[in-house]
Amino acid sequence: MNRFALSDPLAQARTAISRRILVVATGVCGCAALLLATGPFPVAHRVPLVAGFMVAGTLSWLATRWRGEATQWAVVAVNVVALLLVALYAMLSGLGLNAPAIGFMTLLPMVICAAVGARAGVLSAVAGAALLLALAWAESRGLIGGAGLLADLALERRLVNHLLLVGAALACGVMVAQVLTIHRRASDEREARFVGLLGIAVDTYWELDATLSQVTVWARDPNHRFVRVDRALPAPWEQPSLRFDPAELTAHKADLAAHRPFRNLRVRRLLPEGRVQHDQVSGEPRFDPQGRFEGYWGVTRDVTADVALQQAMHATEGRYRELFAVSPLALVIHHDWVVADANPAALAMFGYPDLAAMKGQHLLQHLGSETMHDRARERPLGSEDRSLPAARRRSHVPGPPRRLPRPVRPVARPARIRQDTPNGSRRTCAATSPPRNSSTPARSTSAIFADSTPVASSRERPSHGTSRPCAIAQVRGSR
User: Fold this and answer.
1) Which domain holds residue 108?
2) Is there a contact between 75 and 115 (Cβ–Cβ < 8 Å)?
3) Does 439 share its domain with 338?
4) To the nearest 10°, the Cα dihedral for 315, 316, 320, 322?
């Protein structure tokens, strides 16, 4: 079964051999027509027979230019025509089973088997046997002369006929040998291709026997070729250098007992220098053509670098989570203003008892008025300060515009937002955010909010206090 979308080497071999057989058939039909036309032996309807061989040779030559399965059908057609012409020659010449051309009937089934397949070869053999029986019956009934006419056939002509038969047999043998060569070359090519790809993707190939007690390993060398380890090893769970998770090992043994495939089994290997190598093992059961279990085969991939990267990412994430939790800044993560996460400082600032109460809340509901709602939606935090001329936004310095050696990110002017908390208090926050770039989704932003309530209140009445900074960052990614 061809499990991959690749060309079948057997089909390619049969197509190539069919074209060569058609070339041989062209020569044989041409020689037969020439011998029949120039022979002194009396043959009834000589001209139609000569024309038949010439037509068969011409069609064979034209069919050599065909491709694919069409060449195999051409070989079948030539086989049918050849059987009929040989039978007609044996009948019309009166030689019957003694006609030298009868030997070609023994070659045609072999040619069909090599070019088309065993079934077509069997049909060709059955047809040839039926024609031989018909000729034997005609000779037994006296309808044809049979062996008595051989004395009238010249020795040279008989020798030429047999030499032609030997040459055709040699050509057919060469064709069969080429079938094997082409098929083996194609198979070797496919094997080399898959071994090369396997050497890129995995580190070892292994086979476990039917008793699940011994494993044979092929290790990848620097040239991405797999070299067999000198000796068979015990089952993986019996090797002291391999470590399995107990629960995963129990499930793995159950899969092996049930002859089920398994994927990405995690194994730790203790190396002689003391390091730990992390592997991922995958395998499938093997069965013979009769369906008997023969063991497992599979591959192993070294994922030590991936595990180290995951551990580093988890450690980094853990540090950031710790900073998020203990930071005195009020940090809120939201998506389109809907709260996804918040730290204790944010819960205290917005007046929520716990994260469950704040999660899923819409931040715009804390703005003081509908006008503030609209302003927050229409002007995303971090938008560029459009009140400055373009040249000043690029240079960030007063005075006339001047050319800079490289572009500078535009200024994000703080926006003042009034906030209502669930406990009824009102705050004024100054929101600042870095400008968006081309890689930032349209609904994504990060912002820093500073509680400027004491500053804003001092304009109305004298008061003293310190501002409490807060930060709100939106999840990267749009809905």
Assistant:
1) 9-195
2) yes
3) yes
4) 20
| 114 domain residue, yes or no | yes
Q: Return the CATH number at 450.
A: 3.30.450
0.70 cut: is pTM over it?
A: no
CB 476 within 8 A of CB 441: yes
With contact defined as beta carbons under 8 Å apart, do 427 and 449 qualify? no
Compute the distance between CA of residue 86 and CA of residue 90 in angstroms, rounded to an integer: 6
Same domain for 220 and 188?
no
- What's the length of the chain? 479
Residues 356-399 pLDDT 10s = 888 888 877 766 555 555 555 555 554 444 444 444 444 444 55
CA distance 446 to 52: 89
Q: Which two tokens stand for residue 313?
A: 């990412």
Compute and round to an integer the Cα radius of gyration of the chain: 44
Which residue shows structure tokens 């716990």? 354
Task: Provide the domain count of the chain.
Answer: 3
Phi first, then psi: give them for residue 197, nearest 5 degrees: -65, -35
23 touches 64 (CB < 8 A): yes
Query: How distant is the alpha carbon of residue 374 from its chain centre?
Result: 51
Record the tokens describing residue 230, joined without a space: 């000198």
Calculate the alpha carbon distances from 415 to 204, 327, 365, 375 in Å.
60, 23, 17, 10
Task: Work out the burial of residue 342: count CB atoms within 10 Å of its CB; fewer than 13 is exposed, 13-18 middle, 19 or more buried.
Answer: buried
From the list 22, 72, 31, the residue with the least C-alpha distance to 165 is: 31
Residue-wise pLDDT for 421-472, tens only, equals 656 666 776 655 555 555 544 454 555 555 666 655 555 444 444 444 555 5
